[in-house]
Amino acid sequence: MEKQPSFEKIIGGTNKQKEEVLETMEMASTKTGAELFGQYLVEPTMKEEMVVEEAVTYANAVAKQYGASRQFGTDRVFLLESGAVEDLSDGRIQQGVCNFFDKSIGAERNKSGALLAVTIVHEMFHINSYQSAQIYKNGGNGLYRSGISMTGRNKEGDYFGVAEEAIIAILSKKFFDEVILKSALYQEELDRTSKTKDWLLIFAEQHVPEEKRKKFKAAVQDILILPMSEEVYQKLHDSNKDDIYKYGYFNGFFKAELKSGTIFRERSMERETFEEVLDRIVLTSKDNTISKEYLFDEFARAHFTGNYIPLSRVIENVLGKGSFRRIAIELGNMKPINSIQKDMLQSDIE
Questions:
Q1: For residue 148, which of 155, 160, 182, 226 is within the disulfide window of CB 3.0 to 4.6 Å?
Q2: Residue 104 DSSP SS3
Q3: Spatial CA neighbour of 51 closest among 125, 128, 115, 123
Q4: What is the arrangement of strands in the sheet containing 158-159, beginning at the earlier edge strand?
Q5: Residue 257 pLDDT more than 80?
Q6: For the CA atoms of 281, 283, 287, 293, what is the dihedral angle to 10 degrees?
Q7: Maximum CA extent, the chain
Q8: Using an 8 Å Cβ cutoff, are 151 and 134 in contact?
Q9: CA–CA separation, 113 vs 92, rounded Å?
Q10: Tally of domains in the chain
């Protein structure tokens, strides 16, 4: 695959500083998996190679559909041993990581091929998006724009950070529906997951107290794929233990896996916040002339192209002047806005 741009834009600093940043990143983008991940790097099996290929192909196609200028090959996706991402990030993140400076993705080996694929697609949707950097007054540098998200120049938070994760989560779910549910690569674990969910829902009707039943059933329904599905299936279907014991086993397993982020219930809080905003804009539009699908596509195009202008026009036509900035803050992680932040966002739109 042809060479990709390091960043579409670098703000701040001198021309010399910008050249130095670009040169450093160009060197970083040639690093091998061994140089980037060292002892954590593992050799993929044939099946894992197929999973990676399927995920990368899909993510590139969707990104291109939304106007992305970046396309990445499987050669920048590296398979890592279990627990590697947590170790490398000092516990901050799990399962998968992408680095915009060296243009790499690291994904942990997973007993679930489907979860491995979703992890790769998620990170691809980050790295395929619009990217720009900034040089700080002290000479250091960092991200300015990552997709639709924009970092404050004084590191005071970001605009649209919630929207970025929600967009990626929604597109990752689309990958699950369009690819994983139909691919022979994942059918065995999908079947085991489905039968396990059926067992749990029947058990809930018979044994879970009514005040807890609704919440438990909703959590079970929300599971798209189970990690370690074979082990869980055997515990519930092939064990001589009684049903109460089996339920206790699953409950403990579920809580542990949910805490570690390996059960696919991706970014539920971000999705809910994002979709509430979409619904509000759609309902406010005259005669509901804007559909939710159209509005989502505008957000996704802003994420992959970096162009805020079409999205800002849509929002301000419905909610009025200044509403784009308010939505950017609502769907971000910013401290209260001040005049410097106001000018910064406005200049980026224009």
A1: 160
A2: strand
A3: 115
A4: 9-11, 131-135, 141-146, 149-151, 158-159
A5: no
A6: 60
A7: 71
A8: yes
A9: 23
A10: 1
